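Practice set, problem 2.
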Amino acid sequence: MGIKACRSEARIAARGTPIRTVIFKDVGGIRYTLRMWDTGRLDKRGCSFMSYELYCGFSGSVETLFEADDFAGSPMHADDSDETVRALLSFLTLRPGDTDAEYFSGYTAEQLAWCQAHAYDLAIAVLERFGE
């Protein structure tokens, strides 16, 4: 999981159609795009595991911040709902000090630097769009 050049559109298309794409056009001068896909797997509660990719940047210089297939939302909300997007982004915008240090043990140095420099701004944008 590191910041790296965004995969080609062909790679993204191979995953199928995202169940949700959310774009934040200007968060401190940065554009963020979150794409979510259904993996076809269920967690122990029967909720869908989703894969996701959070990108930042503009067309010529897009980088992947986070990419995984381990998120399952609440059984109370649809996988493509605003509540599920808000929940996922609340995890991705956590910063050191917001939760236990072990939460960040798998983060790269680049991800930690992004968290410290930009996660708060994106968290505020998420709250403004989707509420608490």
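Problem 2, part (b): a different protein.
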Amino acid sequence: MEEVLTMVRAVISSTKVRSLDSGRADLTATTATEFANMLVTDLGVPFRLAHQIVASAAGEFVRKGSKESDLWPKLVFEKAQATLGTMPERLKERLAHLGTLEAVVGRKRSIGSTQPRETLRLLHTRAVALRQATRRQRARLNRLAAAGARLRREAM
């Protein structure tokens, strides 16, 4: 266990967290699954077709090599419109809003999800559990030390 903890300490202490410009064009396609899910849940598009639409938009986005992050939701809307026919204008607005990483993360609301509020709740829960486990371990160590001292006294 001590060896594992040594490795964990080494990994955590050497981990570097960098801020990230989530509006970068090369990161916008990370919202592809959410776009496909929106087509399925909001418009009732079959799952496979929704993913084909989004994959087609992603392919064009990559081929164009655009640095414009707002091009991505436009392409998804255009591909959906070309495949499905007329599209509600509100979908265009929702796709534009969902095109950000913050929106995708914020949309997750299940237990253990990446939504900031859920992440904080989970961290708080883990911190409480860690404090409790630390108290239990200290109590065990104290009992062990006392038992060792008693054993040494009785052995003499």
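Answer key, part (b): The radius of gyration is 26 Å. Residues 116-155 form the longest helix (40 residues).
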